[in-house]
Amino acid sequence: xxxxxxxxxxxxxxxxxxxxxxxxxxxxxxxxxxxxxxxxxxxxxxxxxxxxxxxxxxxxxxxxxxxxxxxxxxxxxxx
Length: 79
Description:
The chain is mainly alpha-helical.
């Protein structure tokens, strides 16, 4: 795995962690904006991973990959 892929993955994980921390601390924000930004980041991650990697993971397209990651995260509990 290339360095830029690791950085993209770390960026997505960091954003998710920061969002959860703010939620737990009682800092309420408009989640639609946060989720839209997270979806954009997940799509960028899918692009960096490449079509072959996404297909090997069992997803036909990058948006299915991003949707799965979003739904499997803790954010689906607050949507």
